[in-house]
Amino acid sequence: MIKFNIPPYVDGEEKYVNEAIASQKICGDGRFTKECQKMLEEHFHSSKIKLTTSGTTALEAACVLGDFGPGDEVILPSFTFSSTATAIVSTGATPVFVDIRPDTMNIDEEKIEAAITDKTKGIIAVHYAGVGCNMERICEIAKKHNLFLIEDAAQVVNSLYHGKYLGTFGDVGCYSFHETKNYSMGEGGAVSINNPSLSDRIDIIREKGTNRTLFINGQVDKYTWVDKGSSYLPSDILAAYLYPQLLIMDEMRDNRVATFDLYYELLTPLKEAGKIDLPTIPENCVHNGHMFYIKCKDINERKNLQTFLREHEIESTFHYIPLHSAPAGKKFGRFVGEDKYTTKESERLLRLPMYYRLAKEDVVKVCETIKEFYK
Predict the structure, then answer these.
(1) Which fold has domain 249-374?
(2) Euclidean distance between CA atoms 128 and 79, whole angstroms
(3) What is d(CA 336, CA 364) in angstroms, rounded to the nearest whole number?
(4) What is the mean pLDDT of each run of 10 residues along the chain (375 residues)?
(5) Residues 244 and 16: beta-carbon distance below 8 Å
């Protein structure tokens, strides 16, 4: 069986996890948490990065930083994971969905302004499959309308747009280190604080709404409850698992990109024959090989291909059911404009096996099996 995903595992995992255990400091903000945060800050040129318990809680913290609340609206694409929307809903604000671009599956930046009302308080730009949104245009819109900008950068850790790391454009960037992501701690995430005015408040929010960090740093003689917040600090054991991966971040990215390139090369004949569509990587983007997908003719063809692959012991999966058509999307949010591409393109998309150190012969088998199906 060729698995769809195998979580990343590199040399040093047990060594550092055992060191974290031996330190008898296994709660949050231990040695490895601080080391990971420092490496991420230096690598991404971010002024402040803090680990969280998940990409979801990173988004929740970002929405608290944005002061979203009842009566507010936040614009996002409908083609995204539920976490993007639930983070908004948890504040009492309303998710406002717009259509995507068919080439990158990212939010259509030209649909955002039409969704802006006097209630709009923020935008969440979701970067799909390791490829960045048009951040020039989105940043321009956010600045023009004085909107809080969050990047859902869960899938673009170590990807760049115009030479700048994604997750560092908005007021806050949110990363994921789930086991399905390029770099993993099982469950985990991080926030990049790009707006200096938010730097102190993130420490309070991730420490249950207290100023405990100031107390630990000797800046106050006692700590107390001062703001909203939750327990967003991951165990240092999990950070210790992530640590050796961050030591070889670019090597791991390059390995996945090589797999992506091999898929693309082997499947190009089917694209040229008009059988499938392949991912688009804009010239201004450096992607991280997070995902490789193909687009079939329609949902029925996708289902048949997925069944055919399963019969040949190859795992594959589709992706999101558009949020605006989901029960909770109808209950908590609304869609603005025409759903020209979101549903149609999501129904065509099929994700193929992709993970660090995926064997070349397995990629070849996947591609040959797909070619056999289209015969």
Answers:
(1) Aspartate Aminotransferase, domain 1 (3.90.1150)
(2) 9
(3) 42
(4) 97 97 93 98 98 98 98 98 98 98 98 98 98 98 98 98 98 98 98 97 94 80 89 97 98 98 98 98 97 98 98 96 97 98 98 98 98 97
(5) yes
